[in-house]
Amino acid sequence: MATKFAIITGASTGIGFELASLAAKDGYDLLLVADEALINDAAADIKQFGTDVQALEADLSTTDGVDQLLSAAGSRQIDLLCANAGHGLGHGFLDQSVADWRHVIDTNITGTLYLLQKTLPAMVSRDDGKVLVTGSIAGYIPGAFQAVYNGSKAFIDSFTEALRNEIKESKGVTLTTLMPGPVETEFFDRADMMDTSVGVNPNKSDPADVAKDGWDAVMAGKTTIVSGWKNKVQVAMTGVVPPSMLAEQHRKMAEPGTADQ
């Protein structure tokens, strides 16, 4: 059993899987969590690095799912939490079912906040621990045809900034917000966005690169990291471009039927 223990959510594929690989290589025992059975295959792959790896299939959009995670962690001290679970949703808001947009909000916001509220107090109490929360540059952009997702990430980007301030006296606790742009993962397929320009864009970021940016940032104690220079430029532009223009630009990327445009 390693002396270090990490929990990584959304770890079955993409950024979460790559974060799990980095953590295992650094000697962390792991609890990997996702809402699909593929998490078991991911854990089997990560075991090659020689640490103890536990898999849990749980729906982190619910407090019950987060409680399952906490129960699986047991009494082990959580040295690192990567709150990476997230869910996207494409198409116009008026065309979306209540169940679908609520699942995005409950996964991206409710589950994330509940997990942080349950794990951070122990870190703050002992003045030691690291947390990486996956936000997004989408939080800076009014997301036409992806409005609920972008809005949820705006909440996370803002919330983590506020929470960092609230716990700033705990110098040994690192809370880092990772803000990637579009990443080459199953995100766009799951969000039903493969008929959009951004969904089929071949120039999306590599999840391994994004995970490495996030890993280096949380280990260095940084507050935020925008992954990729193009995304850094885009975030900078949001401060000068009118929101209505940003929404129109996003529409060109995310509106259904724009894949061939």
Question: Topology of this structure?
Answer:
Elements: E1 4-9, H1 14-25, E2 28-34, H2 38-46, E3 53-57, H3 63-73, E4 80-83, H4 98-126, E5 129-134, H5 147-166, E6 173-179, H6 187-190, H7 197-200, H8 207-220, E7 224-226, H9 229-237, H10 243-254
Parallel strand pairs: 1-2, 1-4, 2-3, 4-5, 5-6, 6-7
Helix pairs in contact: 1-8, 3-4, 4-5
Description:
This protein is an alpha/beta fold. It has one domain: Rossmann fold (3-Layer(aba) Sandwich). It is 48% helix and 15% strand. It is built from 10 helices and 7 strands. The chain has helices spanning 14-25, 38-46, 63-73, 98-126, 147-166, 187-190, 197-200, 207-220, 229-237, 243-254, and strands at residues 4-9, 28-34, 53-57, 80-83, 129-134, 173-179, 224-226. It has a 7-stranded parallel sheet with strand order 3-2-1-4-5-6-7, with helices on both faces. Helix 1 links the parallel strand 1 (4-9) and strand 2. Helix 1 (14-25) crosses helix 8 (207-220). The protein is globular, with a radius of gyration of 18 Å. The termini are far apart.
